[in-house]
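Reviewer 2 asked us to include a model.

Predict the structure of this chain.
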Amino acid sequence: MLTKSIRLTEDEAAELREYVDISGEIEAVALKKAALRGIRELRLSEAILLYLNERDTDRAARVAGLPRAQFLNVLAEKGISVLEEPSSLASELEGLARRFGNERLTQVAADLEPREA
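Predicted model (structure tokens):
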């Protein structure tokens, strides 16, 4: 286990003391929880900014420290659009087929496309 230290202003230390007095929590535990919560929030906010700038959900999810599906759920909860234009099952399958190099998915996507008359 590693030990990290931080410096607090008098006001910050007073706020921490007040919280510890009210909650009955051990100071080191309160500091650890606050640091971890802050790191998670920092990672998530940076990931959302990255996604908004680059539209790369894979990379943004890694920055957030979340599985991609969970990151997509967070975006949806925050009202952030993932699709820039209407999508169809065929186009989504086609994208997956390209990504995974799967010929069977490519054929299924082609079979779903509306036929030209």
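The two ends are 68 Å apart (CA to CA). Residues 9 and 15 are 10 Å apart (CA to CA). We have added this to the supplementary material.
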